[in-house]
Every structure is written in C-alpha cells, then in structure tokens.
Amino acid sequence: MSQHDPREHARAVVTRRQDEVIALSHSLHAEPELAYEEHKSARKIADLVERSGFDVRRGAYGLDTAFEAVAGSGDLVVAVTAEYDALPGIGHACGHNVNGAAAVTAALALAPLADDLGLTVKLLGTPAEEYGGGKVDLLDRGAFDDVAAAMMVHAAPADGVGMTSLAIGSWKVSYTGRAAHAAAMPHRGINAADAMLVAQVAISAYRQQMIPGGVVHGVVTGGGEAPNVIPAHVSADYDCRAATAEDLAELQSRIRACFEAGALATGAELALEAVGNDYADLRQDLAITGLYRKAVTDLGRRIPDSPDTMRAGSTDMGNVSHVVPTIHPSIGYDCGDTIMHNPEFTRYGTSAGADRAVLDGGLAMAWTAIALATDDDHRAALLTRLADRRNAARVTPAA
C-alpha cells in the first residue's frame, strides 16, 4: 500500500473493509425503519465507525436518530451524508441501505488520510429523507456550518451524475362541516366532501395555467361513513412540487387558494397543515461533479453523456445544495427496468450489483474528496466560498 498515492491507500482500505460495509448494508436492509424511527439503523452505523476510531456524537443536533462522526482535523471539512430510512410496507425500495453503507465506505477510506490531506471527514447520519427532511433540520441547526463540500450517492437502477430534483411541500388538508340526514334534512348539513370536491375541481382547472414544471398530487385519506349522512369530516394528503423553491412558493399559493375556495363555496372549515420541511430543488456543483465523474469512470463504471439521465423526485439534499457545494450522483444496481419505490427494487437491495454499488460509490466519493484536498485550485475555491458564507452569516441586517 503506497503512502504516496492516497487513491490507492483509500482503495486498499475499502478492499480490507468490504465485508464489513456489505454486511452493514444487508443488516440495514433486513431491519427497515421509517423516518425519525431509525434507532437500530443509526446505532449500527455509529457503532461501526466508532470502533474505527471516529469521534461519534449520537442524537446529534437534537435529533434522536441522527449522529455525527468526525475524523481528522484539517481546515477543509467534507461532509458525507448517510441515509438509512425506509418506506412504509416496502422497506428499502429507495435503496437507503446502500446509500448509508456507501457513505460509511467513503468515510472509512478517508479517515486514515485525513490529517495528511488537511481534511476533516464528517460523516453525518441523516434521518427522515423519505418523509420529514432530516437534512433540513440538521442544516437549520448548524450541522453544515463548517462544511466546505457535501456529498452522497443514491442507489438507482443506473449510474448518473448531474441529476436534478423538484422542490416539494407536503400538506395535510381537512374540512369540517356539519352532519345531517342526507334525505330528510340535507339543508341543515355542511358537506365536507363537497368542499374537497370543489377544491379538486379548482386544482384540475388550474392545471392548464400551472407554472411549467409544477406537479400537484394527492389522495383522500378519510371522509364519510354512510351514504345517508352528510359527511362532516374529510381529510387528504397533498404534495406540491416545482422546478425551484421559488416556483414552489408560487404554486403553493395558488393551490392554497383552491382549498380555500372549497371552504368558501360550502361553508366548511378548512385546516391546512404543513408536513415536515419543504424540500428545495437540487443544485449540484459542476466542479465537484466533474471530479466524481472521473473517479467513478476510473472504477470502470459507465456514466451516460446526458446530465439528466435521471430526474429525482425530491430530496432534502436539495436544501443542503443551496448552502453548501454539493453532489448527489446515482449509483446503479444494474437491475434492468426495475423502478424505485417498488417492491422489486427492494429485492435487488442485497444483490451483487447493490453490493458493488456500496463499494464503488464509497470509493468514488473518497477519491472525489482526495481530489478536492490535493488540487490547490479546488481547495482554495471551496475555502473561499466557505469564508464568504461565514462572513455573510455574521452580517446583521439594519433595523
């Protein structure tokens, strides 16, 4: 193992630890946990890196299922984010067992090199990507304040770089009316189902003029018990998505008006509650993306020429990318036409292709971080951007 070639040093670490990180991926897959409930998953990862010499803080930044694991003391802080939450009913159909294990692989590969490269490696355990937005919580609470670059890989059917995502905001919507006999005294009732119907018609009518890239989708979760009773309560879950955070705000304003129209038309009372954090659109850093592309192709993986080969739904890594130079490439399983968020994708999560994604994704991130640390121009640019960000945060607005 050459001390003079940090890439080969990192590769040797991954080769030596590959059985451990693959076992971690399989263990996460075998015990899927939902958003903000990932106690076992967070503990498994934290235990492994703590045994490997990382300084680990569990329950970091006030989140029970988050952690922060640090190695090195250099001025260039690189955060690798580990996801590990699953989906209701279908487990790791988004591949977060691979995401988390690949992040650990990268951190383990970088840790022995960190001080020599002037790096601080920060492995962040980030809960609740599927629902709630743990990275937004961590961002708001200072986890990324000292971070010059952030990265993760995301499991997918195929490799890709430069993928985009939509900004998203989620709502719980309910109408409360007044029950009445549907035949004898319908005029004494206030029909909550009609209020939802008016809102849905208004949303459908708005689609023709909807902002480009806007998407609205929802499902009625409750309403009405018997056909001869005017429904007094109706509930629904709705998501709004848009190409940018700014477009999302505009779209949400219009969709809110549609729900208000339902209340106005029927006399029902509207309650509209935001669920979790809004996710911003993903803005990947072109320079770091180029370094990752070289790293992953050096490992023999093929990246399609088109930067938008894969469009993500939405991710809380988008919020991080608005503050910190960020990459979020996809790492493929080689699973054909299988789609994510499908039970078939869950079954591929412990395949040989998924195991290779853990190792290649982790090593490619490690090589990317090494390139950032050893290239004077990249390093200086990141540290300058970090200093500018800190200076801007210190500015106190005039009263």
Automatic annotation (TrEMBL):
GO terms for molecular function: dipeptidase activity; para-aminobenzoyl-glutamate hydrolase activity. GO terms for cellular component: cytoplasm. Residues 169-262 form the Peptidase M20 dimerisation domain. GO terms for biological process: folic acid catabolic process. Pfam families: M20_dimer, Peptidase_M20. Belongs to the peptidase M20A family. PANTHER family: PEPTIDASE M20, XAA-ARG DIPEPTIDASE. This is Peptidase M20 domain-containing protein 2. It comes from Streptomyces tabacisoli.
